[in-house]
Amino acid sequence: MHRHSRHSQQIYTQIRDRITTGELAPGEVMSEANLAKQYGLSRTPVGEALRQLAHEGLVVQVPRYGTVVREIPREELEELFEIREALEGMAVVKATSRITDDALDELSTLCEAIDAEADRALAVGESTLGRDGLRRFLAADLAFHTLIIASAGNKRLNKLMEQTRTVSLMFTARRGEHPVSRVKQANDAHKAILAAMRRRDAAEAQQLLMNHIKTSREQSLSAAPPTDAVNLGSINLPQFVRQDLA
């Protein structure tokens, strides 16, 4: 892999994680020059990373101003969940007949990691995940769904799903407190899907996965702002930037 590509992917992953966990809130502005200085790199890989984030709908690049973290409107979020339900439902059917035993074991390991995260919070008397715990949970959750999609053996489907999964996770992080009870509920669904896939029961796996996404959709939409609400955080953005973000 070209050095710039490797560095840009690392920067992309770090900034994406800061957005999906809510560390970078809607309306926050990132400067390509400042990021390059922060990472000790040239502006080329930083620019590549920011363009990838913009392509996925996580940020908006505004000429003469900077790169701004987007708010996700309710209508867009609803559409993304509809796409996820349809495409992941199709993917799990194909994956159930193709997935290897090693991949099934990897899914099991991811479920164990999520359980461990929930148990870690409960062990110290917390009923919600902290920022670090949320980041680890979201990473494992993303890996679980991504592995199922990859196991379907359809490269174009992988590309189509990248944006919908990342943006869905971004809003999941912004629901506010993330109760451990919901983490366990989501992981119980993961384990049921995995059990159906081990039995090679494609129809059952599909129904379970679609129900899981519907539940996530309902929880996310219940916390979503109205369609016409644009939350740009506390930053006093110029009007031309607000127009680009609307």
What is the H/E string? HEHHEEHHHHHHH
Major sheet characteristics: 3 strands, antiparallel
Number of helices: 10
Overall strand count: 3
Q: Structural class of the secondary elements?
A: mainly alpha
Any descriptors?
mainly alpha, 246 residues, 2 domains, Four Helix Bundle (Hemerythrin (Met), subunit A), 4% strand, 10 helices, 3 strands, Arc Repressor Mutant, subunit A, globular, 71% helix, single chain
Please provide a written account of the structure.
- InterPro entries: GntR_C, TF_FadR/GntR_C, Tscrpt_reg_HTH_GntR, WH-like_DNA-bd_sf, WH_DNA-bd_sf.
- Keywords: DNA-binding, Transcription, Transcription regulation.
- This is HTH-type transcriptional repressor CsiR.
- It comes from Posidoniimonas corsicana.
- One of its GO terms (molecular function) is DNA binding.
- The protein is mainly alpha-helical and 246 residues long.
- The protein has 2 domains: 3-71 and 230-245, Winged helix-like DNA-binding domain superfamily/Winged helix DNA-binding domain (Arc Repressor Mutant, subunit A), CATH 1.10.10; 74-222, Up-down Bundle (Four Helix Bundle (Hemerythrin (Met), subunit A)).
- It is 71% helix and 4% strand.
- It contains 10 helices and 3 strands.
- A 3-stranded antiparallel β-sheet has the order 1-3-2, with helices on both faces.
- Helix 4 (74-98) packs across helix 6 and helix 5 packs antiparallel against helix 8.
- Residues 227-236 have low confidence and may be disordered.
